[in-house]
Amino acid sequence: MRDILVLLETGADGKPTALAQRLRSQWQVVASMPPRLLVLRLPSYKVAAIPGVQPLAQADPPLNEGEQLFAAAWAAQGHKSAPRPGDGADWDAPGFIPPA
């Protein structure tokens, strides 16, 4: 099983079709950004075989700012951030000002 971020097709009113409810009942939803983004836990072989799901690059209309942020955060999970000055040091370590 793996977690897959999917983009749902929407109807003319901008709301997801009945597909969203069907996917929610068929597969475990790990996270969602309504109305168009779902993170589903799927067997690997099912990824390409879901009708009504589009690749993120083909989003129409394009992803809005919130959806872009959600997708970027999901893609970045598990990646460590770059080391920062003072990581692991005491708050009052030499060269640093402790919080007030």
Fraction in helix: 10-25%
**What structural category do the secondary elements indicate?**
alpha+beta
Q: Name the helix and strand elements from N-terminus to C-terminus, one letter apiece.
A: EHEEEH
Q: Calculate Rg over CA atoms.
A: 19 Å
According to DSSP, the number of beta strands is 4
Q: Give the distance, in angstroms, between the N- and C-terminal Cα atoms.
A: 47 Å
Tally of individual helices:
2
Could you list the spans in which at least 5 consecutive residues all have pLDDT below 50?
A: none
Q: What proportion of the residues form beta strands (DSSP E)?
A: 15-25%
Q: Mean of residue pLDDT? A: 81
Question: Strands across the major sheet, in which order?
Answer: 2-3-1-4
Give the overall shape, derived from the CA principal axes. Answer: elongated
Query: Could you describe the largest sheet, including whether it forms a barrel?
Result: 4 strands, antiparallel
Describe it for me?
The chain has 100 residues and is an alpha+beta fold. It has a domain at 2-65. It is built from two helices and four strands; from the N terminus they run βαβββα. Strands 2-3-1-4 form a four-stranded antiparallel β-sheet, sandwiched between helices. Strand 2 (28-33) and strand 3 (37-42) form a beta hairpin. It is elongated. The model has no long low-confidence stretch (mean pLDDT 81).
